[in-house]
Amino acid sequence: MHNSRILTNEFEFFQPADLSELFDLVSDTGVETQLMAGGTDVLPQMKEGRKSPQRLISTMKVKELDFVTLEGNYITIGATAKLKAIAAFCKDIPSVDALYDGVSAVGKIQILNMATIAGNICTASPAADPVPPMLAMDASLTLQSRNSQRDIALKDFLLGPGRTALRPEEIVYKVNIPMPQSGTGSEFKKLERVSADIAKINMAVVVIRKGNICQSCKVAVGSCGPTTLLLSGPDKILGGKEITDLEGELIREAGASVSDEITPIDDIRSSAEYRRKVASVIFMDSFKVAWARAEGEAL
Ligand SMILES: Cc1cc2nc3c(=O)[nH]c(=O)nc-3n(C[C@H](O)[C@H](O)[C@H](O)COP(=O)(O)OP(=O)(O)OC[C@H]3O[C@@H](n4cnc5c(N)ncnc54)[C@H](O)[C@@H]3O)c2cc1C
Description:
5-stranded antiparallel β-sheet, 15 strands, 11 helices, Enolase-like, domain 1, Uridine Diphospho-n-acetylenolpyruvylglucosamine Reductase, domain 2, 3 domains, alpha+beta, Uridine Diphospho-n-acetylenolpyruvylglucosamine Reductase, domain 3, 299 residues
């Protein structure tokens, strides 16, 4: 029987100061090793006995990983950037409302102060709040090992609950999010049982608009499948179409496609039926907000 307040297993703890030291440790794959950033997922799992590594390696003192910046046409976020720092950065950037709200929706201030972007992505929870906006904004990750680097789309990185495309000798180095082009508007919504809970369902909608023409409509939905789902239906229905009525047939058809495309299950937070019903409504509400924001209207 595990006591959920203490770590019962013995392990070695390492805090490398730079990437070179980090890769010395990560490259030694012979010992059961757990990488940790803010520890808000890893430490509860260790306390509950779900993980008992021989070595725990913290990334938090590796200076090269802690940044949030504009690099060319991308917002680039280092692996150990804290969610609070990312939210503060996004506040000053136009057209990234969904990203700001998705990042800010994680837990409460204690969690935002500790949790990192790489930790949130690598936990690969289908309910993660920062993931829907990043997916809908076509984010990619730069993965690094001692001798090589590769980029992978976030949608290809997330394979299932707790499963990613990360190889044993790799770490997430940074997240790359294309800067929204002009005419972009976005919205993030989260339904939860009580305040600061994990989402029953969350969704990001990102539209690009030229006058009344919807150039594209990207929708990502969490807690409704084995990973956060990037949907194709809404864009097929609305992309290139003139939107004259925000309550009209086209929008309702796109909403119905959201409910059809998700694959929710019954679990402790909600039922599949509720999630399917509410998904189309959340989509239609979010579309309205994103559409108005794309024209610079506040809603
Ligand atoms: C009370 C509470 C409330 C929460 N509420 C929410 C919520 O509302 N919404 C939500 O989305 N989440 C929530 N969470 C989950 C959690 O806070 C997030 O998933 C957090 O972002 C994880 O980041 P971390 O830095 O703490 O990760 P850690 O726990 O340190 O690590 C998580 C995983 O990421 C891996 N990892 C970390 N950095 C790297 C890297 N650079 N390269 C490769 N792998 C890496 C670790 O090996 C581990 O597998 C909550 C957690 C708690 C405890």
